[in-house]
């Protein structure tokens, strides 16, 4: 892979940072693009640029000729119409800037289960509930969705420039990152740490369907492995793939496993949702005290948690799991224990002084 030059768009996020490490280990020369790129990943070459500024992109890539481009980021807006406008532009602008170089061989895009469940404005609501497990051949919903808009930008650029592509649809990515918009693992770790400090129970925030139903999630390392596999496997080119850990579970089991890890009391579903966004409201000072007492790196609660997104996932009115037969049939055989995903993340958060 010594002649392959990878560009990870969103290299500071859960998916992007894990993918950058996977690519570096596989021998790619790897660049990480972000507005404020970190340099803590050994071997990663950071690029600071705003994807909405084509002139800045032209300057940033004047001497860089990526062979592989991996989109792992998005920007949250106030409406789905704005999500479409902005997030399609992120993809379009970069591929237009790279187009004259004729260097790009493959482009990968990470989206997710909103492809099947609908955008934030209509997420998992009556009338838009798919049959589960969700499968890649399910048709698009008759709804505006920025995932669809991003895919269409990839398809158009591939037709213009002749590169191959892959689309990856994880289910709730679990991995290490701070300040991420959709971070269930860190959100639950911080919530559990607050429960331990205050003596309050670890209360299930979501629906009965999620509490009792079968589910799966996607470890960031598993997602990274599938993305690299698809880039390197000709039979996987120009296709979309679901990706999850390979096991299934019920939250009425996993919730207790998480509580046991932190040594706290768990409370399950008891007749209605108890959203984390409300539960964590007003706990800023509690977290700041926890951070001070334990010499933690981030005392600002809101830079760590994303309760709105955790509430969306855990509040769905149906059980949701993904079918991975398509990539399995083509030779992708990686597997990850979901319980281990959470425990390994919690251990990393402790090691990095994010939680006590």
Task: Set down the secondary structure blueprint.
Blueprint: E1 5-9, H1 14-25, E2 29-34, E3 44-48, H2 54-60, E4 68-71, H3 80-98, E5 106-110, H4 114-117, H5 146-161, E6 164-170, E7 173-174, H6 184-198, E8 202-203, H7 208-212, E9 214-215, E10 218-219, H8 220-232, E11 239-243, E12 249-250, H9 251-262, E13 266-267, H10 276-279, H11 284-293, H12 307-314, H13 325-329, H14 338-351
Parallel strand pairs: 1-2, 1-4, 2-3, 4-5, 5-6, 6-11, 7-10, 8-13
Antiparallel strand pairs: 9-12
Helix pairs in contact: 1-8, 3-5
Q: Describe it for me?
A:
This protein is of the alpha/beta class. The chain has two domains: 5-173 and 217-243, NAD(P)-binding Rossmann-like Domain (Rossmann fold, 3-Layer(aba) Sandwich); 179-216 and 248-319 and 337-352, no CATH class. The chain contains 14 helices and 13 strands. The chain has helices at residues 14-25, 54-60, 80-98, 114-117, 146-161, 184-198, 208-212, 220-232, 251-262, 276-279, 284-293, 307-314, 325-329, 338-351; strands spanning 5-9, 29-34, 44-48, 68-71, 106-110, 164-170, 173-174, 202-203, 214-215, 218-219, 239-243, 249-250, 266-267. β4 (68-71), α3 and β5 form a beta-alpha-beta unit.
């Amino acid at each position: 892979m010594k002649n392959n030059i990878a560009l990870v768009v969103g290299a500071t996020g859960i998916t992007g940072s894990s993918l950058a490490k996977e690519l570096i280990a596989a021998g790619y020369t790897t660049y990480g693009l972000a507005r404020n790129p970190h340099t803590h990943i050994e071997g990663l070459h950071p690029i600071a640029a705003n994807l909405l500024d084509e002139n800045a992109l032209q300057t940033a890539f004047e001497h860089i000729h990526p062979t592989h481009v991996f989109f792992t980021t998005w920007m949250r807006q106030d409406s789905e119409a704005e999500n479409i406008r902005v997030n399609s532009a992120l993809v379009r602008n970069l591929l237009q800037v790279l187009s004259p170089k004729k260097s790009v061989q493959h482009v990968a895009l990470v989206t997710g289960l909103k492809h099947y469940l609908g955008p934030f404005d209509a997420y998992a609501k009556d009338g838009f509930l798919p049959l589960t497990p969700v499968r890649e051949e399910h048709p698009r919903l008759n709804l505006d969705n920025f995932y669809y808009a991003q895919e269409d930008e990839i398809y158009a650029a591939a037709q213009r420039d002749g590169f191959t592509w892959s689309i990856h649809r994880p289910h709730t990515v679990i991995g290490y990152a701070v300040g991420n918009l959709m971070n269930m693992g860190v959100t639950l770790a911080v919530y559990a740490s607050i429960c331990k400090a205050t003596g309050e129970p670890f209360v299930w925030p979501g629906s009965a369907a999620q509490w009792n139903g079968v589910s799966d999630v996607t470890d960031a390392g598993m997602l990274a492995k599938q993305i690299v596999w698809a880039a390197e496997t000709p039979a996987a080119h120009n296709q979309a793939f679901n990706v999850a850990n390979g096991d299934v579970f019920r939250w009425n089991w996993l919730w207790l496993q998480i509580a046991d890890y932190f040594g706290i009391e768990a409370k399950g579903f008891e007749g209605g949702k108890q959203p984390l966004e409300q539960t964590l409201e007003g706990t800023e000072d509690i977290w700041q005290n926890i951070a001070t007492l334990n010499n933690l790196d981030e005392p600002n609660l809101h830079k760590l948690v994303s309760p709105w997104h955790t509430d969306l996932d855990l509040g769905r009115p149906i059980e949701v799991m993904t079918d991975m037969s398509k990539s399995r049939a083509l030779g992708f055989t990686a597997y990850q224990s979901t319980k281990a995903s959470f425990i390994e993340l919690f251990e990393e958060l402790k090691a990095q002084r994010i939680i006590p």
